[in-house]
Specification:
The protein is α+β, with helices and mostly antiparallel strands. It has one domain. 13% of the residues lie in helices and 24% in strands. Strands 3, 4, 5, 6, 10, 11 and 12 form a seven-stranded antiparallel β-sheet that branches. Strands 1-2-9-8-7 form a five-stranded antiparallel β-sheet, with no helix packed on it. 47% of the residues are buried.
């Protein structure tokens, strides 16, 4: 969760494992959209001597659908390359790293970014852009914030890009949730008689890092015909966003341990909405799901319409969700939220509908301005600038999706259903309120928004 180690095969390939995708109208530049795709989950900061880096053999991409067919109309592709300056040293760095071209940094990574339109029109936006090093500690990276700031590259036409290590922004009580669906704030109600009282949640991803690809571009770069929609109800105001990682089809490893790759790129990972492959797609279909385009998600719609977790909640918490237990119809609410977007008329003054094509994408209505006082529970709490209208780095997507699966908004599309009283209180217990400051993770107010990564020397585990 959100998509950390979510399928058997990709869990063995962390550099290609997408963990989270974010898409939101930039709060500090409302004419732009920020797109963030995170990879390499659950990084312990003290990861030397071979610190984390993007895969030179992986094609990373962020895709945008602006004509409602679940296929990319605009893509940004990222390819990475490593330069080893002294192959006879085992060290990542031989002294303090004070700049992105510091000779003390022995394993430097750079990247290119290419914009693809219509599937075949390609334009290289930049090459040789420097990633920052990983945050090692006070001797090796004494002014890490400045190193990271130098790795925010200004491109033409107001675009910005960053690729490198960041603090994990996603918070979740993994240890409890995957222990037979325990939700600590009301664990004493669990069917297994192991708990006698509630407990606060435990942030499993606290003080861990990820690798982020972050891009800030004008809204007109992403919308159909380059328009700048201002009417929230404009059917062309919504874009779909997802990320993929692909590898060459063939790999040959020789006796010296070197490998040669050839053939076309094959998709091995994808991510749109949080938690979908994690807790909606069944075990036998997870690897297949990672290889498919969103346009083919009608083949998986049955698992969204009748999610296993919606059946488990009443079984695990007897008597807590009686109305949910009795509901047997396909979940039109979840199909709308996750696969088509929310049509006009369901939430007054809002829509992020992309038509009848069922496709797992983050749907962002770019005509919705950033919230002056954001609520981490997003749309269900009256903040239309938050998830499931895109996703901001601090949105509490675990709570939002747990409540949605439990039926919190089902009555909006099926007035015969009454949400269970407990539904509005479901949480994994990690937040103290509803503002970004109430989350367990620090964020930045400006691009790239995710916080400075934790360093190994000062890591709380030490």
């Amino acid at each position: 969760m959100s998509s950390h180690r979510e399928a058997p095969e990709i869990s063995k390939d962390p550099v290609a494992d997408s963990t989270d995708v974010y898409a939101f109208v930039s709060p500090d530049d409302c004419d732009t959209v920020t797109l963030i795709a995170n990879y390499i989950p659950l990084q312990g900061p003290a990861g030397g001597p071979n610190f984390y880096e993007f895969g030179d053999d992986v094609l990373y991409a962020v895709h945008i659908d602006n004509d409602n067919d679940g296929r990319p109309d605009v893509s940004y592709e990222f390819r990475f390359a490593v330069e080893v300056r002294n192959p006879n040293s085992f060290l990542y760095n031989t002294g303090s790293i004070s700049s992105l071209d510091d000779p003390n940094w022995n394993r430097r990574q750079t990247y290119s970014i290419t914009r693809v339109e219509g599937g075949d029109r390609r334009r290289v936006l930049a090459e040789g852009l420097a990633c920052p090093p990983c945050n090692i500690g006070p001797l090796s990276t004494p002014d890490y914030a400045s190193l990271a700031a130098a790795a925010v590259h200004q491109l033409d036409d107001g675009r910005k890009v960053f690729a490198g290590q960041r603090a994990e922004g996603f918070y979740v009580d993994l240890g409890a949730i995957f222990d037979l669906g325990t939700l600590r704030p009301f664990q004493e109600l669990h069917v297994m008689p192991a708990f006698t009282q509630p407990a606060p949640g435990v942030d499993t991803t606290k003080a861990l890092n990820v690798h982020s690809i972050a891009l800030q571009v004008p809204i007109t770069d992403l919308t159909r015909s380059g328009r700048r929609p201002t009417d929230v109800l404009d059917p062309h105001a919504t874009i779909g966003v997802w990320t993929t990682a692909s590898r060459r089809q063939a790999r040959i490893i020789n006796t010296s341990g070197q490998d040669t790759e050839s053939g076309p790129f094959v998709q091995v990972s994808r991510l749109g909405n949080p938690l979908i492959n994690e807790v909606v797609i069944p075990m036998g279909k997870k690897d297949l799901w990672n290889t498919q385009p969103p346009a083919d998600d009608k083949n998986f719609a049955e698992y969204v319409a009748m999610p296993e977790l919606a059946k488990l909640l009443p079984a695990l918490y007897p008597g807590v969700f009686p109305n949910l237990a009795a509901y047997t119809k396909p979940r039109a609410d979840l199909l709308a939220i996750l696969l088509t977007g929310i049509p006009n008329g369901v939430v007054p003054g809002f829509q992020n509908y992309t038509g009848d094509t069922q496709a797992d994408m983050l749907r962002l209505n770019v005509a919705v301005p950033p919230a002056g006082s954001p609520n981490i529970l997003g749309l269900v709490a009256g903040d239309p600038a938050g998830f499931p209208n895109g996703r901001r780095v601090y949105d509490d997507v675990v709570t939002i999706e747990l409540r949605a699966i439990a039926g919190l908004v089902l009555h909006l599309v099926d007035p015969s259903f009454t949400p269970d009283q407990a539904t509005g209180g479901i949480t994994d217990g990690l937040t103290t309120g509803t503002t970004p400051a109430d989350t367990p993770t620090p964020y930045l107010d400006t691009f790239p928004y995710l916080g400075v990564p934790y360093d190994g020397y000062s890591h709380p585990a030490n």
